[in-house]
Amino acid sequence: MSHPIAEKASAELGRAATPARVMRTVVEWIERLCHLDEGMLDGRVLPRAEVDGLYSELVKLTRAAFLRAAAADAIGAAVDRLEQLPVYCRPKRCDLAEWVRTAEAARAQPVAPARTSDVLDPTVRALLAMVAAEPARHRLHAPASPDAIAQWEVEHRQKLPSDLAALYRVSDGFSLFLGNLQVDGVAVRMVPLRELELHAHLVDEPRRRSRAKTDQARAGSNERLCVFDLGNGDFLSCLPSSSGRTLWIDDWHEVPSPLRFATVAEVLEHLMSPERIDAQGRWYAGLD
Known about the structure:
Order of helices and strands: HHEEHHHHEHHEEHHEEEEH
Largest sheet: 7 strands, antiparallel
Distance between the termini: 57 Å
Number of domains: 2
Strand order of the largest sheet: 3-4-5-6-7-8-9
Oligomer: single chain
CATH topology of the largest domain: SMI1/KNR4-like
Number of helices: 11
Strand content: 5-15%
Helix content: 40-55%
Structural class: alpha+beta
Number of strands: 9
């Protein structure tokens, strides 16, 4: 049976939704491992037998959480955070250097994309070519499985647009134009499935079914999905519909407004366009 403190750690690490939040929680539990090195935790002296079992569980949990954060973190901030821990914050019986080596080895592995629809194929090929040409600036993730997509749809009571689901089957999120400073050094990011949320959930308000007739009014629906993170809480969002028509929404401004895009392919073409790069080499959204 798992130790109650390990169960608490598992719950806290599982609730952390973003790589940055995961790393904050990982570091907190690494500090507790340092206390366990001295046989103490939360001000209590623990029996050696209890310390050994708990120590093993906590190392396993924090290592797994760190590797999850590192895999989802496009710019290496998770690895940097771990490497920058001072000596006195490094547990004696925990090989943090091995964690870093494992994370970096995983990041070096090429991603094999899944087969996509004929409509999305040309744009995905362009995306893959852009990533291959400048891997230091663009990063894909491992594909989302059909089961993961189906589970997301059940949990959120929302069907993903078919072309968006197809893109997640290519890469479960991605980061483009690294080195820009909009999103922790990333210009544009497709959020992974575990971060994909309805706007209602992000702002912690009840979900409301929209009865609006016009696209301008529908754009404000809190059932819209915040898909592409453009920085500072700004998104390109989409609102699926039972008719199969997806409304893409500019959440860049204070008032959400409909966009001309009808498909994921059109959104990607816009995001990847050379016209998005200004004279100083910086990426910008270009939605005005």
